[in-house]
Amino acid sequence: MASSKQDGQAAASRKSEFRSQKPKPESRDESELLTVPDGWKEPAFSKEDNPRGLLEESSFATLFPKYREAYLKECWPLVQKALSEHHVNATLDLIEGSMTVCTTKKTFDPYIIIRARDLIKLLARSVSFEQAVRILQDDVACDIIKIGSLVRNKERFVKRRQRLIGPKGSTLKVRKVVLDTMKNIHPIYNIKTLMIKRELAKDSELRSQSWERFLPQFKHKNVNKRKEPKKKTVKKEYTPFPPPQPESQIDKELATGEYFLKASQKRRQKMEAIKAKQAEALSRRQEERNKAFIPPKEKPVVKPKEASTETKIDVAAIKEKVKKAKSKKLGALTAEEVKLKMEADEKKKKKKK
Question: What's the average model confidence in pLDDT over 65-83?
Answer without folding.
Answer: 94
